[in-house]
Each structure stands twice: as C-alpha cells, then as structure tokens.
C-alpha cells in the first residue's frame, strides 16, 4: 500500500472538494484542476460593497445528511427562511406554510385561498407520509412525474397551480413538473425535517468552508482540462501530467472519448433589483401563482440594503425569446402590477445555462462500485444521481472512497 499515489480531481465544485477532503483524510497527495478562478462551481457568490450576490437563488436544506456531515452550520452563520411562502395572485396575496413548524402561519394557511380545506389536510397527510419514509423507500419507488404524483395523491388543480407548481418550479427549474417523483419526495422530506437556509455571507460560504478543510491538496485555478486519458491529464495550455488516478467531478463526456453525449441541463435567470418597498418580510419566499402567464417565478429580499434601498432577488425560469432589456421591462411591470413592488434599478444579472442537470433516472447517490469509468478514471458530480448539494457531496465522497479502496485493496468491492 502506497500513499505516494498521485491523484487528480477535475473540478473544484462541491463534489470535487468533498472528494479531495476524503482523499486528504486517507493521506493521499491530491491535485485539483479548476477551470474558473475559484472554488465552488455552481455554488458561487460575488461580493459588491460587501453585499453577497449569489449566482442564482439557491438554498441549503439543513436536513441534507451529507451537509450535516461536511459542514459546520454554526460557522456558516445561517439565515433561515420560514417554512412557508407568500403567494401573489393578480389582485391579492396569501401567506401559507407548515403550521406544525411555525405557528404564526396557522391562520393565514387555514384561511388562504391557495386550495380547498381538503387540499390543506392532504398537504399535512403528504407531509406525514413522506417524513416517515426511509431514503431507500423514496429512491426505490417507481418514478413518475411530480405533476402526476400530485394528481394521483388527489390534490385539486387549484392547489397545484397556486402552490405546488410555482414552488417546485423554483426548485426543479422547470415549469411542467416533469421532474421525478423521487426527487419531489426527497426534497419534501428535507423541507419537513429541516429548514431552507442561506449563509449570511452568501452561498459561496459553503464552498469556502469545504475548501478551508483542505490543508495538503494542491489547487490549480484558471486551468482547464482538455482531455483525460487513462493515466494522463492534458490541459488546454498543452501541458500534460501523469496521475495514478483521476476523479472527474464534472460532465466527463467533454474530455473522455467514447462517452455518451453531453449532459443536458436546465437553466435559470437571476436578477437583483434595488427596490423602493418591502411587501413581505425577508424570511419568506414570494411566489407568483399564475405560472403560465408570468415570467417571474419567485423572489426574496436580501438582508442587506443598497443605497439605503431594499434588494430583491428575482428568478425567471420560463423559456422565452426576449432579450435582457425586454425581460427587465416585463418583470419590472409584473413585480409592480402583481406584487406592488417598485423597482428602482437592476443591480446584477446572472444567466446560468447549466444550473441543474436533467437526470433520466433519479437516485440518491452513486454507489462506490459505480464510480469507476476506466481502470484509472472515476466519476463524481451531482449529475450522476440528482441535482442537489447533497448528491454532489455524496458522489464526491463515493468516488474518493472508491479510489482509496482500489489502491488499498487492489480492487473495488462491487457489492458496495
Ligand atoms: C441556480 C441554482 C440553484 C440551485 N439550487 C439548489 C438548491 O436550492 N439546493 C440544492 O441542494 N442544490 C441546488 N443547486 C444545485 C447545486 O448547486 C449543485 O448540485 C452542486 O453545486 C453541484 O456541484 P458539482 O461539484 O457536482 O458540480 P459543479 O458545481 O458544476 O462543479 C464542477 C466544477 O468543474 C469545473 N470544470 C468544468 N469543466 C472543467 C474543465 N474542463 N477543467 C477544469 N475544471 C472544469 C467547473 O468550473 C466547476 O467548478 C442549484 C444550482 C444552481 C446553479
């Protein structure tokens, strides 16, 4: 057994970082190649005058088992969202949520027009059913679309259109709720067991905290990998370097020959506006109920102010043909007409083309035995299980442990 094996990780996103943490833990020399200028991948934040602007609205669910293992929540200084949403209709708004977790939401939820009383009891029934399922039960269940699942559960069109569709469109980044029912149950369970949070310093604080756990790992930033051959990494600069093992923590079809076509992705646009007024408190997420006719899907207020004005993050998930200026005009109008929010100016805009992977068959994580692509190449990344921070972490861990097992036992136990 030799700890002198050279191991490379391609990509310093959450998955690559967790792979490196595990390799370091077992005492292996690891080198990480990252195309961009910093760690984080899709978990990034820009800081302007100290204000964090996340690259797309994204939350950590505190119940994620992998996040509980790899993150120190106290140090992340978390801002908690309430377990509910403010729903905006054409001429009114509702506040609904989980009254079992936040009593202040009881009356507004009971009297909301989001759905019938029967729907509201069904929401509680669904919550209790899913909360008690094991992860195995969730991820072994037959898959159907989330929309079909909700209909089969007996929810009315009214509650699907007013609540489930806008809420889960914001999470799945697709409007038709074609995402697998397994992902729906998993997310629903995570929401009912914990909270949705963002660190005070922005989502990048998560990546930074993982990075800070690495003491021996070497990082090469602004270094794009062009090709991965069994034991060799070829960089875009033309430089080649030999490794005993290589973990690819991003879509590998870009640089490994004979792999099936590129990964398909869902996109999102995220706007940050300076606005005049506050219509919901900053621990609630605002949703537009009329998903088919509005461009805005969700919004929330940042804790920080800009020029003494409020800051609003707005997500657009709809596919459209508008250019950015046209879209700003349309959503400014929607915010004003539907939510009474007066936009002052656009502060920041992100178009994230590759936000969430489209996964054909959703699983909880990639088992160790399935991470090996070739003799010396192993795979990680959320796209191999389900698009979430939890899967990104678990798949990074799986790939690293597979490499360690291969080195230390000479082969991979395919039963794990
Ligand atoms: C807008 C948005 C909202 C989201 N919302 C949530 C949410 O609410 N909850 C949740 O759990 N998850 C959410 N996610 C998903 C979550 O961010 C991802 O699951 C996770 O970040 C994936 O990490 P990863 O390491 O697998 O991939 P990535 O973060 O994509 O990391 C891959 C890394 O590889 C690098 N790379 C790529 N090609 C090369 C190359 N050729 N050479 C070198 N380096 C390369 C990239 O630069 C990148 O740093 C969201 C994502 C986005 C974008």
Percent helix: 25-40%
- For the record, what is the CATH homologous superfamily label of the domain at 6-44 and 203-263 and 359-409? FAD/NAD(P)-binding domain
Give the overall silhouette: globular
Task: Please identify the structural class as seen in this structure.
Answer: alpha+beta
> What is the CATH fold-level name of the domain at 6-44 and 203-263 and 359-409?
FAD/NAD(P)-binding domain
Biggest β-sheet description = 7 strands, mixed
β-strand percent reads 25-35%
Q: Separation of termini?
A: 21 Å
- Which hetero ligands occur in this complex? flavin-adenine dinucleotide
What is the strand tally?
A: 21
Radius of gyration: 22 Å
Mean of all residue-level pLDDT scores: 94
CATH architecture of the domain at 6-44 and 203-263 and 359-409: 3-Layer(bba) Sandwich
Strand order of the largest sheet: 8-7-16-17-18-15-19
Describe the structure.
The chain is 31% helix and 27% strand. Strands 8-7-16-17-18-15-19 form a seven-stranded mixed sheet. A six-stranded mixed sheet has the order 10-2-1-14-21-20, covered by helices on one side. The protein has a three-stranded antiparallel sheet with strand order 5-9-6. A hairpin with a 2-residue loop joins strand 3 (45-48) and strand 4 (51-54). With 416 residues, the protein is of the alpha+beta class. The mean pLDDT is 94. The chain binds flavin-adenine dinucleotide (FAD). Flavin-adenine dinucleotide is lined by residues 10-16, 33-36, 41-43, 56, 58-59, 224-225, 249-250, 268, 352, 355-356, 381-382, 387-389, 392.
């Amino acid at each position: 057994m030799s700890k002198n094996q050279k191991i490379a990780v391609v990509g310093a996103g959450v998955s690559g970082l967790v792979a490196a943490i595990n390799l370091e833990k077992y005492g292996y020399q690891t080198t990480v190649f990252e195309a961009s200028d910093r760690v984080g991948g899709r978990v990034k934040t820009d800081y302007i005058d100290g204000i964090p602007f996340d690259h797309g609205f994204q939350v950590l669910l505190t119940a994620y088992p992998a996040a509980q293992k790899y993150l120190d929540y106290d140090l992340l200084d978390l801002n908690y969202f309430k377990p509910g949403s403010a729903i905006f209709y054409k001429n009114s708004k509702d506040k609904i949520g989980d009254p079992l977790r936040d009593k202040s939401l009881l009356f507004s939820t009971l009297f909301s027009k989001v759905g019938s009383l029967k729907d509201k009891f069904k929401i509680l029934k669904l919550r209790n059913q899913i909360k008690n399922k094991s992860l195995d039960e969730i991820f072994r269940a037959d898959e159907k679309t989330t929309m079909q699942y909700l209909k089969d559960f007996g929810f009315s069109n009214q509650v699907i259109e007013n609540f489930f569709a806008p809420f889960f469109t914001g999470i799945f980044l697709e409007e038709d709720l074609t995402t697998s029912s397994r992902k729906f149950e998993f997310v629903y369970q995570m929401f009912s067991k914990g909270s949705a949070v963002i660190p005070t310093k922005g989502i990048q604080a998560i990546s930074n905290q993982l990075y800070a756990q690495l003491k021996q790992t070497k990082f090469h930033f602004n270094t794009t990998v062009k090709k991965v051959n069994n034991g060799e990494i070829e960089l875009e600069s033309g430089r080649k370097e030999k490794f005993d093992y290589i973990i690819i923590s991003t879509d590998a079809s870009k640089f490994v020959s004979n792999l099936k076509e590129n990964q398909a992705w869902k996109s999102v646009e995220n706007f940050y506006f300076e606005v005049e007024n506050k219509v919901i408190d900053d621990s609630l997420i605002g949703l537009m109920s009329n998903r088919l006719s509005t461009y805005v899907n969700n919004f929330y207020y940042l804790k920080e102010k800009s020029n003494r004005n409020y800051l609003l993050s707005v997500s657009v998930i709809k596919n459209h043909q508008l250019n950015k200026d046209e879209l700003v005009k349309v959503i400014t109008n929607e915010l004003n007409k539907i939510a009474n929010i007066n936009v002052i100016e656009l502060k920041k805009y992100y178009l994230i083309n590759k936000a969430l992977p489209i996964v054909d068959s959703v699983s909880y994580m990639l088992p160790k035995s399935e991470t090996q692509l070739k003799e010396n190449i192993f795979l990680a990344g959320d796209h191999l299980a389900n698009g979430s921070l939890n899967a990104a972490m678990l798949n990074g861990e799986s790939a690293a442990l597979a490499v360690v097992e291969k080195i230390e036992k000479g082969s991979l136990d395919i039963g794990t």
